Amino acid sequence: MSGRAHRSARPRVGLALAGGGPLGGIYEVGVLLALAESLEGLDVNELDVYVGVSSGGFVAAALANGISPAQMYRLFIDDGADAALVPALFLRPAFGEFARRALSVPRVFAGAALDFLRRPFRHGALASFAALGRAVPTGLFDQRAIDAFLVRLFAAGRRSNDFRTLERKLFLVATNLDSGKAVTFGEPGFDHVPIHKAIAASAALPGLFPPVEIDGEHYVDGALNKTLHASVALDQGVGLLICINPLVPFDASSAARRGKLTVEKINHGGLPLVLAQTFRAIIHSRMKVGMEKYCRQYPHADILLFEPDREDADMFFANIFSYSDRRRLCEAAYHKTRQRLFAQRDSLGPLLARHGIRLTVERLREPLRSIRAALLDPRPLSIHAPAVRTAARDLAYTLDLLERWLHRSRRLPRGVRAAAAR
Predict the structure, then answer these.
(1) 306: helix, coil or strand?
(2) Which terminal residue of the chain has fewer beta carbons within 10 Å of its beta carbon, N or C?
C-alpha cells in the first residue's frame, strides 16, 4: 500500500506555525524536536497539512520538504560550518531600495517646493513637504541572500520549490499591501508562486524588509491579519491541529517575584523592549480570540497550542545573533515542551490516542535528557510507514551521524584526529 493511502487511512493531522522572527523559528525548532521524540506514531515530516506565517513559513516549508527538526537545528542554530543560515544573511542592507528612493528625492523635493511656493499660506511648509515621505525606504534589509539560500536548499535531493509537486500540502500566508487582505500561497490560483518567494512575502515585516512584488502585487508579513491562520489547516479537514506560537507578552513583575528576573519594569530596557512587549501583546491577544473562534467553528477537531511561559526571560531577552543564545533558547524550548507534555500526560494521552498517537511517558520521565539526544536519535517512525521508507530513514540517520563525525574530525588537530579514528 502506498504512503499516500496510509496517510488517508489515519486521522488527518496538521501543523500551524506562527511568526516571531529568527527568535520564533528557533523556538519552533526546539518544540518540534521535543514533539518528534515524544509522540510515537507522529512523524513531523509526514503530516497532511502545513501552514506557516512569517518566520513560521521557513520552518513549515522545510518540514514539508522532508527536512527534519534535527537537520534544521544544524542548518539554522548549531555553531560552525553546519549553520548555513547565519544571522548576517538577515542584516544585509537593502542598497537597491535605498538607491531607488534616493534617486526620487530631487523630483519629490522639487514638487513639494513648487506646491509650497504656489500656495504658501494654504497648506504651510509641513503639509507641502510631507510628500518627502515617499523618498523614505520601505525596508532596511534585503532578502535576496535569504532567497538564494532557500533556492539552493529546496533544489537538493527530492525537495521542491514548487507547491504543486510537494507530496504534502503546504500553505504560506502573506498580506496584500494594497488591499490589506490575507493571501494564501499554495492554494489554487496562488500555487504557481515559487515557495521561496512565498516565504519572502510572508516574512516581509514592514520597516525591516521591503514589500515583495509577485505578479504585479506587493505583499508583506502575513501576521498583519492573523497570528496563526490556523483556519487554513482546519478547512482542510484535519482532525488534530498542532499550533506553535513563539510570541507571548512577558510578565516581568511575576518573573521578578519568582526570582527569575532582576528588573521588574520593562520600561527600564528602553524603546526596543517597550516595542517588543507591545507587539507581543497585540499578537497574543488577537491569537487568543482566534483560538476561541476556532474551537466553536471546528468542534470536531482537536487543537493543541504550544507557546512559551509568560515568565520565560530566555525567550524575551535572548540575543538571536549569538550562537550560544540561540542554542540555549532552542534547548529551553525543548525542555519546557517536554515538561508540559509530562505534566499534562493524563489529558493529552487519551486525546492523542484518538488520532493514533502515543505519548511516550517513559521517555518524558528522563528529566536530565539533553537536546543532543534528540539530535542524535533516529527520527521516530510512523507506525504506518512501509518497510522501504523505514530502511531509507535508517540509512539517512546513519549518514547524518557519519556527516557529523567527519565534520568534527576535520576540525581536530591531526594527532587527535588519528586517535578519534581508532
Answers:
(1) strand
(2) C
